[in-house]
Design goal:
The complex is a heterodimer of chains A (154) and B (180). Chain A is of the alpha+beta class. Helices cover 38% and strands 24% of the residues of chain A. The termini of chain A are close together. In chain B, strands 3-4-2-5 form a 4-stranded antiparallel β-sheet. Classes of the chains: A alpha+beta (154), B alpha+beta (180). At the A-B interface, helix 1, helix 2, helix 3, helix 4 and strand 1 of A face helix 2, helix 3, strand 1, helix 4 and strand 3 of B.
Chain lengths: 154, 180
């Protein structure tokens, strides 16, 4: 357990763990979750606001199966000359289809996820990134999934 | 495994775009969502159920920031595995709790010989390296070429239309930070 986690109360931890499993679809989901966690709705909402304010939680939201909705996503990488790194990062991040972008220590130093609502648009987005940066875009689509963790216990 | 895309109408799409921003922290959150897009609470809940049961939404829950929770080191570890061994090694690596993602992806020769991608999260780079040594020993990976790519900076997190489960690495946000 990290130091940050040790600072959380037992209630906060149980909230984070339970609410990662999912929020029910019913008129008063927080009241239902609060009853399950042995607290009340007002306290639960207040703790969620506090945890969000402290930066531990980003939000309550969906993880979409993009393919199921007709879209697609992929992992792509660039080999960016060091002197151009910030400039290229600006270009890549300006694409609304780019979801996450990480700098990594390697010749392949920029790694990002591209998500499109229409699967057929993927090639065109990658081509536009290539054209805009003047760099080869290496596409690493998932071919087989051995494991993906959806939950992060605290 | 490929499923036919679900048919979404305009009202589904409006809801999909709205919930991406987060479920409101109020006692009747689905009523509040409906108020913003001119939809009754019942209709919001019916459409949410449809999106979840059909698998369009894999998970609808709280999304944590693992970095803020103390997992500051995030490494992509990539392996050059013979095709005949990839399933066995992939399944071995998938068993460790600190490995948050394990996918087969294409090589891009000559520059990129690696075809198995894993993400390891830890409290520090040293902790990640220790975990890596553990799996190399326990899964018998001594002869498998690999590289470790630590993240140095996160430039953009989930600014796109969809936060996707599965390409990144925030463990659970794993998915936002994650890495893809």
């Amino acid at each position: 357990m990290t130091a940050a986690m040790q600072e959380l109360s037992a209630l906060d931890r149980s909230i984070i763990n339970r609410l990662q499993d999912g929020i029910p679809v019913c008129a008063a989901p927080y009241a239902e979750l609060a009853a399950e966690l042995g607290t009340d709705e007002t306290t639960l909402l207040q703790r969620l606001r506090a945890l969000k304010g402290a930066g531990y939680l980003s939000r309550i939201g969906p993880m979409y199966n993009v393919e199921r909705m007709g879209g697609a996503f992929t992992l792509a990488a660039l080999r960016v000359p060091e002197a151009r790194f910030d400039e290229v990062a600006g270009i890549v991040n300006a694409f609304p289809e780019v979801a996450h972008n990480y700098r990594r220590d390697h010749a392949f130093n920029m790694w990002f996820v591209v998500a499109v609502a229409d699967a057929e648009a993927m090639d065109s987005v990658l081509s536009r990134i290539k054209a805009a940066t003047g760099l080869e875009v290496y596409n690493f689509p998932k071919q087989e999934e051995f494991y993906l963790r959806l939950k992060f216990d605290v | 495994m490929k499923m036919h895309p679900l048919k979404l109408d305009d009202r589904d799409r409006a809801l999909v775009a709205l919930i991406q921003k987060g479920l409101p922290l109020v006692p009747r959150p689905y009523a509040e969502l409906g108020r913003r897009i001119g939809m009754a609470e019942d209709e919001v809940m019916q459409r949410m159920d449809k999106l979840r049961l059909s698998g369009a939404i894999k998970r609808f829950g709280v999304i944590v920031r693992h970095r803020e929770l103390g997992y500051r080191a995030n490494a992509m570890v990539v392996w050059d595995v013979p095709e005949a061994e990839i399933a066995e090694l992939g399944n071995c690596l998938a068993r460790y709790p600190f490995i948050t993602l394990c996918y087969r992806r294409p090589r891009r020769l000559p520059h990129w010989p690696y075809n198995l991608f894993t993400m390891i999260h830890g409290q520090s780079r040293a902790a990640v390296c220790g975990k890596l040594a553990q799996v190399i020993g326990e899964c018998g990976l001594d002869d498998i070429p690999h590289e470790i790519l630590f993240s140095r900076r996160r430039f953009k997190q989930c600014g796109a239309r969809y936060c996707t489960a599965g390409e990144t690495v925030e463990p659970a946000r794993t998915h936002e930070e994650a890495t893809a």
